[in-house]
C-alpha cells in the first residue's frame, strides 16, 4: 500500500513520513477516522514505509522485497487482527484462520467497511468480535523477534469489537517487546476500552471532502463532472459508499427519488404499490444508497428553505426539484422525514421485508407531506 494511492489526508501522510524520518515512531498509535476515510490503508502504508528498504522522500519505493510482500499482505513481520466469527464447527478460533479471506478483501477494497468484510465470511446473523483466544494469539506472536524487518507490526482493525478481554493486552501495549509497533484503526473512540485508548497516541484521520472524492473519480475512473459530483454528493465523505454508488447499475424501473416523493404527495396508492414492488427487487445496498441520497436531498431542501443556497452542490433537475420540494416541507416535517429514512436504513440492514417496509415509509411520507403545519 502506497501513500500516493490513498485519497486525501495529505497533512496526515506528511506527519507519518516525518515521524519515521525523524526516528520518532510511537510504539502504540490509534488511527481514528470514520468509515471510508482510508484509515486502515493509511496504517498499512505507514507500516510499509517503516519497513521499506529504499525509502523515497514521501513514500515507499514499492519495488523492494519488503514492499512487494507488504503489497500482498504476506510480510512475516506484519500481523493483522480484526473482528470475525469464531466457530469451533468451522475451526475458526483466531484471525489467522480467516487470513486468506482478509487478504482477498484488502486487495479488492482499500476502503474496506465492516459490512463488506462480513460478506467474505459465513456470518449468517451472528455478530463479529475479537475474542480472548485472539488476544492470547496476539501476545504469543508479538513475543517473537522481528524476522526480516527492523520492526514487527500488529495492525488491529476495529478495536471497538474488543470486550473486556482486551484488558489482557494492556501490558504488551504499554510495555511491548523491543521494536514492536501497535497500530489500532478505529471508527468510534467511544466504543473502545478506555484502558486501551489511554495507552495510544491519537492520529485523527479526516473525513474526505466532496471535492477530493469528485476529483478522484474524474482522474482515476474518467467520470464526467456531473457523475463524479453525484457520487461525491451521495457518499458524504465515505469512499466505501462512493465506490458502492459508482459500481451500482442503474435501475430504470425504479424511477427517481423525485418520482417517489410525487407519488407520496399525491397519495397515488396504485402508483406507490407499483413503485414499492419494483424497488423491493433491487439489492439491500442499493436500497440503502437510495435512501441516503434521499436524506441528502431533504437536507438540501432545508438549506434551500433557510436561504443557505451556497451550501447546496446540486444542479439541473435535482436543484429544480429541491427548489420546489422545499416549499412543501419546513424544519418539523423535514426532521420527521429524516427520522423515517434513518429508521428505514436501520431496518434494511436487519433484513426487513422490503415491500412491507417501503410501503409503510411511503404512507408515512404521505401523511407528513399532507399534514398542515400547526
TrEMBL record:
Transmembrane segments: none annotated. Pfam families: DNA_pol3_delta2 (PF13177). One of its GO terms (biological process) is DNA-templated DNA replication. InterPro entries: DNA_Rep/Repair_Clamp_Loader (IPR050238), P-loop_NTPase (IPR027417). This is DNA polymerase III subunit delta. It comes from Solitalea longa.
Amino acid at each position: 500500500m502506497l501513500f500516493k494511492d490513498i485519497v486525501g489526508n495529505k497533512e496526515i501522510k506528511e506527519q507519518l513520513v516525518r515521524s519515521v524520518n525523524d526516528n520518532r515512531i510511537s510504539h502504540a498509535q490509534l488511527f481514528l477516522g470514520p468509515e471510508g476515510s482510508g484509515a486502515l490503508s493509511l496504517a498499512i502504508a505507514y507500516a510499509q514505509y517503516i519497513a521499506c528498504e529504499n525509502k523515497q522522500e514521501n513514500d515507499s519505493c514499492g519495488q523492494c522485497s519488503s514492499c512487494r510482500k507488504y503489497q500482498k499482505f504476506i510480510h512475516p513481520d506484519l500481523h493483522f487482527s480484526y473482528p470475525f466469527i469464531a466457530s469451533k464447527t468451522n475451526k475458526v478460533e483466531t484471525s489467522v484462520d480467516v487470513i486468506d479471506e482478509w487478504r482477498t478483501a484488502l486487495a479488492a477494497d482499500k476502503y474496506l467497511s465492516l459490512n463488506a468484510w462480513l460478506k467474505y465470511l459465513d456470518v449468517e446473523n451472528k455478530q463479529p468480535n475479537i475474542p480472548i483466544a485472539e488476544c492470547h494469539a496476539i501476545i504469543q506472536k508479538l513475543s517473537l523477534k522481528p524476522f526480516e524487518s527492523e520492526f514487527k507490526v500488529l495492525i488491529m482493525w476495529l478495536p471497538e469489537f474488543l470486550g473486556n478481554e482486551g484488558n489482557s493486552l494492556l501490558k504488551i501495549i504499554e510495555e511491548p517487546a523491543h521494536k514492536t509497533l501497535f497500530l489500532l484503526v478505529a471508527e468510534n473512540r467511544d466504543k473502545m476500552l478506555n484502558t486501551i485508548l489511554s495507552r495510544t497516541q491519537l492520529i485523527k484521520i479526516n473525513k474526505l471532502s466532496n471535492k477530493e472524492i469528485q476529483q478522484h473519480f474524474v482522474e482515476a475512473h474518467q467520470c464526467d463532472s456531473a457523475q463524479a459530483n453525484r457520487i461525491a454528493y451521495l457518499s458524504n465523505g465515505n469512499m466505501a459508499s462512493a465506490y458502492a454508488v459508482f459500481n451500482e447499475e442503474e435501475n430504470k424501473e425504479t424511477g427517481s427519488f423525485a418520482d417517489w416523493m410525487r407519488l407520496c404527495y399525491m397519495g397515488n396508492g396504485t402508483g406507490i404499490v407499483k413503485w414499492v414492488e419494483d424497488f423491493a427487487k433491487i439489492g439491500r445496498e442499493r436500497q440503502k444508497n437510495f435512501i441516503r441520497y434521499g436524506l441528502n436531498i431533504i437536507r438540501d431542501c432545508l438549506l434551500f428553505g433557510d436561504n443557505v443556497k451556497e451550501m447546496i452542490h446540486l444542479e439541473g433537475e435535482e436543484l429544480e426539484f429541491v427548489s420546489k420540494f422545499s416549499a412543501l416541507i419546513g424544519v418539523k416535517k423535514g426532521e420527521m422525514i429524516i427520522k423515517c429514512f434513518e429508521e428505514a436504513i436501520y431496518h434494511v440492514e436487519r433484513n426487513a421485508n422490503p415491500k412491507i417496509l417501503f410501503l409503510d415509509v411511503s404512507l408515512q411520507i404521505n401523511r407528513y407531506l399532507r399534514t398542515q403545519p400547526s
